[in-house]
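Quick entry between incubations.
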Amino acid sequence: MTSVQAKPQQSAPASPLDELAEMRAGDMEAVNEMILTHMRSDVALIPQLAGYLIAAGGKRIRPLMTLAATALFDGDMTRAHKLAAAVEFIHTATLLHDDVVDDSNTRRGKDSANIVFGNEASVLVGDFLFSRAFQLMVADGSLETLKVLSDASAIIAEGEVLQLSTQNNLDTTLEDYLDVISGKTAALFAAACEVGPIIADQTPQTRTAIRAYGQALGMAFQIVDDVLDYNAAQEKLGKTIGDDFREGKMTAPVLFALQKANAEEKEFWARTIGARDQKDGDLENALTLIQKHDALEKSLNLARKYGQDARAALAAAPDNETKSTLTALIDFTIERGY
Amino acid sequence: MTSVQAKPQQSAPASPLDELAEMRAGDMEAVNEMILTHMRSDVALIPQLAGYLIAAGGKRIRPLMTLAATALFDGDMTRAHKLAAAVEFIHTATLLHDDVVDDSNTRRGKDSANIVFGNEASVLVGDFLFSRAFQLMVADGSLETLKVLSDASAIIAEGEVLQLSTQNNLDTTLEDYLDVISGKTAALFAAACEVGPIIADQTPQTRTAIRAYGQALGMAFQIVDDVLDYNAAQEKLGKTIGDDFREGKMTAPVLFALQKANAEEKEFWARTIGARDQKDGDLENALTLIQKHDALEKSLNLARKYGQDARAALAAAPDNETKSTLTALIDFTIERGY
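Done. Structure below.
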């Protein structure tokens, strides 16, 4: 299993995310151990499939948020390990179900689990990991964190269903889009962060502030993700672009391009995204229209607004190294969109 | 929405299940109300899809178990309402995901939700209901019931994955089959029952006994369900039979017929269940072989053994009307197989 913590090195870490992972290297190791232990099952297919996805890596940004938000207030890291693992299980369950719902072929640069193990197993192992997340929370024994994470789980599912309703729907508004990403992404970032001050027994005000940091960071994170899917520079780095376009997802870049579209352009979007009738050259044309209307820049400006919210929310935290890194993470989250 | 409680009537109720529903009519109404309230969402597709399945009825046997097991010890019925609704949400989520996994077309005599709303929505609304179940448990506020039901959820998912591995696999043993149904069915019956004595603050011994009742009843219930799928008399009542055969499920009737199969019969099962290469007349031939080897009778004898376990477990309960009805329910569960 790949582990996210950076290897001991002399040079400065590459990003605030790596820096956080390095600061919490021992904790991340404990979280990884917790993940491995709790995905065990006598039913061999379960650790096989779960391990396939979890070994594929990923940035482990959500459990890292739980660790950082606990360390920020000098909270009990042993509790944070359990809850960070629960957060990662919820996220992994969501990914497994997402790939079935989107009929995806790849995830983290490999064939996605539904391709390798089938949709059936992906649905059921997702359910298993979701249950395991709740078992971990029960073992932690706090009804407060159980509430925060069960609320988040319901909101994630709502966001995903809403996304289904907006997909291929040209009438989707920017507000709808923000509702979708608030549910499908920001809710878990917010909950992952809120767990920290709960563990560290902070005031409700502090909890709300750290939750708001996670929520705003999650919004920025998803908007930038959606920008990257139309960023030709990414293609040069060997990453796939255009997945959202092919799936007819109504994301920020398309919404901003649509706002300024002329009649002919509207027809193009109606055919490619609305009717999902796509042919060679359509993605290139979409990229041209997105550039013409400054839609990536407008999307990044929106992300930047959430970045400001995240920064403001962090004022509630004590000044320490973790806070500096969480602050740097905001800019990093946004700048990776360029 | 259809409600399971029997309409007020002078004549005796048709079955111990109806009798239980009648005894707890007010409570079942409260549970139905709780279900309706908690499947609400601003995302319209969620109550539409959830309501479609829940309105289709079903026997509500699992939440009824929670109500009965609480009433058995004169426990707090208000808590039982919440937890019974949580049990039904877990069950409904499982049904939604099952129908996607099995690629089913019908459920409770109507087009299944995946046919009407699509697999994508069925997966995601299942996730939503599952989350709602945990929100209800958190609102109840007992870590003990949260543990019982989160453990059950993980076991259910394990059972479903195991079923996937045994499907179309002629090497499946009776033990494998019992593991599958213990996970996919009996675990939730057991948990639904155990919640009652927890609410009523009974001793660990009593909890274990009532849980054992639910476990054994669930085993008998599923074996009989699997018998009914090969029971030609059911067809005369207008019910579909042969679903398990078409899906290549290794259930008790097939396992008992296989045990006594000659070479030619083994070839037949290998083709139809193992390779899932089926043609007209195959189901009829399967029924003939199952009859030839007394496989339905053998299956029902197995169910009867679990019935005895259930009866023995109930000895721990105080003698009252609920206990009499729960006892009668054991025989009813088995006799419906004829």
